[in-house]
């Protein structure tokens, strides 16, 4: 194993188990882990030899390294303050300036921000103050075994693992700096093994049923996206025996890989042409030969080492490989990678020595792709990360961690693909089986890939979070929790409709003003066909997303710009057993419906009439849509507003010939022409959440009419 500065900095210090030992022994174990991590991080930054290395950006879309040196220390202070576990800051200016990093939003989204960064000496002094404070906190904090994610110990582990993440991401930035700015101090040695690249072959795997995710009582620290459960049924497939080597990738490059648009996705080709990519990031052209950039050196091209590429380049290689082999070659899905990983029955921190080039146990670089074998495959873990075709998404049961509410959810956008397996510098949580990290597809990490021959499809789309404020509000209204003891309104209305039908036919129902669809889904329990119609395309889009995928994610504000990410789920609301194909969601105008919308046993117009431009026109014609004996169910709080309905068109809440006219009276006057009232009007309350401390508590009146 490597030994950086002192013996206690060795990578032999493992991430602590959460469920062993006593509080006293666990405090000491966490302190050792914290100290080793702090020293290791400092050791990486010791290679920066000039002011330019500290203050100039390695790439335009990331902060300079001075930021990352301070950022991981401020994380401890900021999180402890947010959790109210400490009551004073160390340096408010540094803790504000270095609080938030950069997610590389787009390859053409230039960041021209300027900062008045502190000096290196000032940050070194600051880090030492943080180290002293955190060390003292660890030894005095309340702690119970097992360490659970709402405890102070979990927050400290979060800070430690956060620094280990930036150990790796900072090493990528250092690898992109000019060598003249760096000091190769011998503490980060390059693998001396090179050799000839092996010929890659495809090896069959049986696939099978997998359960992805881990329970909340797992003994290893995890980020929130690791928890929950996702079942996957993986068809048999073949995977490449080795990671793609520099030599194998050279064949793609020589075939015109960077000049042939058809081998790239649209997004990938746009990136490649914008940045004028001609070869992998860490390949260096020297007249008639290729060289290779490691962390601190430029060496002759090690053709047997894995190629470092971003996801776009890996995808383009696979498309080229498919064309030349006439096989379905692609990147593995997350589930397919787990089929590979199942062949390795150990995990950090349980192994005596790493079964791959990982955890800094061998070198500070990649190594030959045939160096570490597990069964039929090499580099199941380690060497370089392995790109997958899977955009990161939450597992069922996902919960946002309250101490770090924006760690995972911003990446649930279909634009961040998972990388699996770790690399030579992956330590801590980065190195465990269940870790889930995702980067934008143009992002460079110490990442390469292996390919699979697979028939799997549908890999590239997931549900992004719905951030439209009104749509999110109604998703919460329809599918969120109940407040103040008031029952779910769409569910209650649908149940009332069902009860009214008695022994009547339940063939066709029309849900007018269906919003995001809960009442339509509920009506589909009983009706053979349900048309859900709303004027808002945004509402209909959300309903269709739920119908298609069974869930949709959305954001609910708590106060100001803060909020929580939620999941509207058919399964969680007991609607997963209905036939969703019974429902047809369509955008439409209740006052101008197409003729085909007719012959209904039930028309439900929930909270609709006081949002129509011409409610009288609607009421005078709705009987044409209902079969004789069918029902019209209206609910409304009668909140007449001129932004929806000209005052001249209000049904009620007005004076007519000097006398007060309420909406219920107007309804009876209009509907008595074609309907009989079935029962007295009843009130149905509902609550709409606006923020954590503001709610609309409203009472709608429900009237029921039978068509003559």
TrEMBL record:
<dbReference type="InterPro" id="IPR027577">
    <property type="entry name" value="OvoA_Nterm"/>
</dbReference>
<dbReference type="InterPro" id="IPR051043">
    <property type="entry name" value="Sulfatase_Mod_Factor_Kinase"/>
</dbReference>
<dbReference type="GO" id="GO:0032259">
    <property type="term" value="P:methylation"/>
</dbReference>
<dbReference type="InterPro" id="IPR029063">
    <property type="entry name" value="SAM-dependent_MTases_sf"/>
</dbReference>
<dbReference type="InterPro" id="IPR005532">
    <property type="entry name" value="SUMF_dom"/>
</dbReference>
<dbReference type="InterPro" id="IPR025714">
    <property type="entry name" value="Methyltranfer_dom"/>
</dbReference>
<dbReference type="Pfam" id="PF12867">
    <property type="entry name" value="DinB_2"/>
</dbReference>
<keyword id="KW-0560">Oxidoreductase</keyword>
<dbReference type="InterPro" id="IPR024775">
    <property type="entry name" value="DinB-like"/>
</dbReference>
<feature type="domain" description="DinB-like">
    <location>
        <begin position="34"/>
        <end position="169"/>
    </location>
</feature>
<dbReference type="InterPro" id="IPR027625">
    <property type="entry name" value="OvoA_Cterm"/>
</dbReference>
<dbReference type="InterPro" id="IPR016187">
    <property type="entry name" value="CTDL_fold"/>
</dbReference>
<keyword id="KW-0408">Iron</keyword>
<dbReference type="InterPro" id="IPR042095">
    <property type="entry name" value="SUMF_sf"/>
</dbReference>
<keyword id="KW-0489">Methyltransferase</keyword>
<dbReference type="Pfam" id="PF03781">
    <property type="entry name" value="FGE-sulfatase"/>
</dbReference>
<keyword id="KW-0808">Transferase</keyword>
<dbReference type="Pfam" id="PF13847">
    <property type="entry name" value="Methyltransf_31"/>
</dbReference>
<feature type="domain" description="Methyltransferase">
    <location>
        <begin position="506"/>
        <end position="640"/>
    </location>
</feature>
<dbReference type="GO" id="GO:0120147">
    <property type="term" value="F:formylglycine-generating oxidase activity"/>
</dbReference>
<protein>
    <submittedName>
        <fullName>Generic methyltransferase</fullName>
    </submittedName>
</protein>
<feature type="domain" description="Sulfatase-modifying factor enzyme-like">
    <location>
        <begin position="200"/>
        <end position="452"/>
    </location>
</feature>
<dbReference type="GO" id="GO:0008168">
    <property type="term" value="F:methyltransferase activity"/>
</dbReference>
<comment type="pathway">
    <text>Amino-acid biosynthesis; ergothioneine biosynthesis.</text>
</comment>
């Amino acid at each position: 194993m490597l030994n950086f500065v002192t013996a206690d900095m060795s990578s032999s210090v493992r991430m602590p188990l959460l469920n062993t030992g006593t509080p006293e022994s666990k405090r000491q174990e966490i302190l050792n882990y914290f100290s080793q991590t702090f020293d290791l991080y400092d050791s990486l930054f010791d290679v920066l030899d000039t002011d330019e290395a500290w203050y100039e950006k390695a790439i335009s879309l990331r902060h300079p390294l001075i930021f990352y040196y301070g950022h991981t220390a401020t994380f401890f202070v900021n999180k402890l303050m947010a959790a109210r576990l400490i009551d004073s800051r160390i340096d408010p200016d540094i803790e504000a300036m270095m609080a938030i990093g950069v997610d590389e939003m787009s390859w053409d989204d230039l960041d021209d921000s300027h900062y008045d960064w502190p000096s290196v000496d000032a940050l070194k002094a600051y880090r030492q103050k943080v180290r002293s404070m955190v060390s003292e906190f660890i030894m005095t904090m309340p702690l119970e075994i097992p360490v659970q994610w709402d405890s102070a110990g979990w927050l400290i582990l979060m800070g430690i693992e956060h620094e280990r993440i930036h150990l790796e991401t900072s090493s990528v930035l250092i690898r992109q700096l000019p060598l003249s700015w760096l000091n190769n101090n011998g503490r980060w040695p390059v693998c001396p093994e090179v050799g000839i690249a092996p010929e890659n072959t495809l090896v069959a795997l049986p696939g099978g049923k997998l359960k992805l995710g881990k329970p909340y009582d797992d003994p290893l620290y995890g980020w929130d996206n690791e928890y929950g459960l996702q079942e996957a049924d993986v068809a048999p497939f073949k995977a490449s025996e080795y990671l793609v080597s520099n030599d194998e990738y050279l064949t793609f490059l020589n075939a015109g890989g960077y000049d042939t648009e058809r081998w790239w996705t649209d997004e990938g080709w746009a990136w490649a042409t914008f940045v004028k990519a001609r070869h992998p990031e860490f390949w260096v052209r020297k007249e008639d030969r290729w060289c290779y950039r490691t962390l601190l050196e430029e060496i002759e091209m090690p053709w047997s080492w894995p190629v470092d590429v971003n996801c776009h380049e890996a995808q383009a290689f696979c498309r080229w490989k498919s064309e030349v082999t006439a096989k379905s070659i692609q990147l593995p899905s997350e589930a397919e990678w787990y089929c590979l990983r199942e062949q390795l029955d150990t995990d950090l921190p349980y192994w005596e020595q790493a079964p791959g080039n990982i955890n800094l146990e061998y070198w500070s670089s990649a190594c030959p792709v045939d160096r570490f074998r597990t069964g039929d495959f090499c580099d199941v873990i380690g060497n370089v990360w392995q790109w997958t075709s899977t955009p990161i998404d939450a597992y069922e049961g996902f919960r946002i961690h309250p101490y770090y509410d924006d760690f995972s959810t911003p990446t649930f956008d279909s634009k961040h693909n998972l990388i699996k397996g770790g690399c030579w510098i992956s330590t801590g949580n980065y190195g465990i089986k269940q870790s889930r990290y995702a980067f934008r597809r143009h992002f460079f990490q110490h990442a390469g890939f292996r390919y699979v021959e697979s028939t799997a499809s549908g890999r590239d789309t997931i549900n992004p979070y719905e951030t439209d404020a009104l749509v999110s509000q109604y998703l919460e209204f329809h599918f969120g929790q109940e407040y103040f003891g008031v029952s779910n309104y769409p569910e209650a209305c649908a149940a009332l409709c069902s009860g009214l039908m008695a022994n009547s036919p339940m063939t066709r129902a029309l849900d007018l003003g269906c919003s995001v669809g809960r009442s339509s889904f509920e009506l589909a329990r009983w009706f053979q066909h349900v048309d859900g119609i709303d004027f808002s395309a945004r509402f209909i889009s959300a309903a269709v997303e739920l119908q298609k995928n069974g869930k949709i994610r959305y954001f609910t504000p708590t106060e100001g710009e803060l909020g929580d990410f939620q999941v509207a789920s058919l399964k969680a609301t007991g609607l997963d057993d209905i036939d969703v194909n019974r429902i047809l969601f369509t955008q439409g105008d209740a006052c101008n419906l197409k003729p085909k919308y007719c012959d209904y046993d039930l028309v439900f117009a929930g909270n609709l009439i006081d949002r129509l431009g011409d409610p009288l026109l609607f009421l005078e014609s709705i009987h044409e849509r209902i079969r004789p004996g069918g029902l019209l169910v209206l609910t409304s709080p009668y909140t007449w507003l001129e932004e929806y309905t000209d005052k001249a068109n209000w049904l009620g809440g007005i004076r007519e010939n000097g006398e007060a006219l309420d909406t219920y009276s107007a309804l009876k006057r209009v509907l008595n022409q074609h309907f009989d009232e079935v029962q007295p009007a009843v009130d149905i309350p509902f609550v709409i959440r606006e923020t954590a401390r503001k709610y609309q508590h409203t009472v709608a009146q429900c009237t029921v009419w039978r068509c003559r």
